[in-house]
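Consider the following input, taken from an annotated entry for DUF1778 domain-containing protein (Pseudomonas mangiferae).
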Amino acid sequence: MKYNKSHLPWSEDSRHEHSLRSKQKRINLRLQDSAKKTLERAASFEGKTVSQFILNSALAHAEKTIREHKVMSLKASDAEAFFDALSKPVMFNKKLAAVLESHEQRVTGR
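Applying the prediction step yields:
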């Protein structure tokens, strides 16, 4: 019985097809030659492709940015003032409503 390499689950063709299916979105960048060379050099130091290097770097920065906007650290006196303000009834006015609407659009993209 003859085996065709392309039918084996671990063949090079099937790995390539799997990698193509797992890639879902594309982002294109336009950059100066010096920036591209810098990225290529940095990627080579880490044994990564430029795409892998950019993706890993961008995701790390994105996660840091999200964390910085999700967590609030306050001194004890500021925390006390904050919780005191939360315990009082909210008086909505046009300015507060506009700020809340702006926040909703910026943060949740609605």
